[in-house]
Fold this sequence. Notes:
This protein has ten helices and twelve strands. It is of the alpha+beta class. The protein has four domains: 1-56; 59-135, Beta-Lactamase (2-Layer Sandwich); 142-216; 218-368, Histidine kinase-like ATPase, C-terminal domain (Heat Shock Protein 90), CATH 3.30.565.10. The strands form three sheets. The protein has a five-stranded antiparallel β-sheet with strand order 2-1-5-4-3. A five-stranded mixed β-sheet has the order 7-9-10-12-11, covered by helices on one side. The protein has a two-stranded antiparallel ribbon with strand order 6-8. A hairpin with a 5-residue loop joins strand 3 and strand 4. The longest helix has 57 residues, at 2-58. The chain binds adenosine-5'-triphosphate (ATP) and magnesium ion. Magnesium ion is lined by residues 273, 276-277, 333, 337.
Amino acid sequence: MDIELLNTAMEAFNSAASNLQTSYDALKEETKRLRDEVELKNVELSYFSNLLESVLNNTPSAILVVNERAEFAVKNSAADALLADMGEKALKDMLAGSLHQGLFEYNADGGRYYRINAGELHSDGLNGVVYVVDDITLLKKFELERQRGIQLQLMGEMAANIAHEIRNPLGSIELFASLLERDLQSSAPSAVKMTSNIVQAVRTLNSIISNTLLFTKEINVNKEEFILADIVDEAVLYLQPLLMKKDVAVLNRLEETHKVFCERGLFYQVVMNILHNAIDAVPDKGGEVEITSEMGAFQRYPLKLSITDNGCGIAPAMQDKLFIPFQTTKTKGAGLGLSIAYKIVKAHGGDIIVDSDGTSYTRFTVIL
Ligand SMILES: Nc1ncnc2c1ncn2[C@@H]1O[C@H](COP(=O)(O)OP(=O)(O)OP(=O)(O)O)[C@@H](O)[C@H]1O
Ligand SMILES: [Mg+2]
């Protein structure tokens, strides 16, 4: 009886042990599966955490989280650089000055501009504000330049309108002064000088206005063939009062056969601007301006027109910026003459070359 009982108990024990073994094996299996899963999750977590860190640190925006104790709880590399650049106090002042929500522009010391985007942050164990800070100094500069450009353009258009309106009455003044000069020649010779001064002053004004108009408008070229000497003669004649006033000799050595393929009015302005400069540069009495031309073989292009003066010359530093607008050494100069001449010659597909020793002569050669 006792043995039978013992056997039954033994069997029950064996069966329980076997059940336990099966459960244990299942548990072991489950533990291994869970461990594998955790490992996989860990790999994923580390991958995403590295990715997040790398995104944060490679973004050009400074990203910072300021916690409730006003400490930097999180900051990326750009924020570290900003902190090093501005210093902690200035950076905290800037952030404190911005709103806790939305966009904000800040003009820091040293003329730098920042755009701050702020949002509240409530995360596990971290409450504060997340800031995204961008340096928009360059953007601001472009914006200001663009606005200035628009204003300048409007001013240019206005100047062109005014210049245009002034040209008509000027033409009348010049005409009447010339007529007066002719009438006074016999009756009041002493007054002739005064009228010729009026004519000269009006011509100077006219040339300033022509240059201003050419500077503001786009140059479109309609080329035709002309005798070069005709255009140059006309410019010399126009400048006659000035030449006489300074007693400058013009040595015109142009070949009568040389022709120029150009838009007459524009090319005339080129010759005029270069000649005018030459006359300005030479001394009173003893000044000489020599005009020569050269042409390619068989009377073909290119045509070279050279205007040489024995004036003060052009210093090397000035030679580099001659064709840039508003570069002048004259008290009454606008610094437009050569930049316009260059613009016109380039629009013709040509070039202007300058040669000067900086003290005693200057030669401008126009190649078309
Ligand atoms: N033949 C020259 N000899 C010496 N300097 C010259 C000569 N031509 C030009 N320059 C120099 O180049 C500068 C620019 O000439 P540019 O004709 O563009 O302007 P400007 O004569 O000063 O003024 P604007 O022609 O608008 O009345 C002059 O101020 C002068 O310093
Ligand atoms: Mg000039």
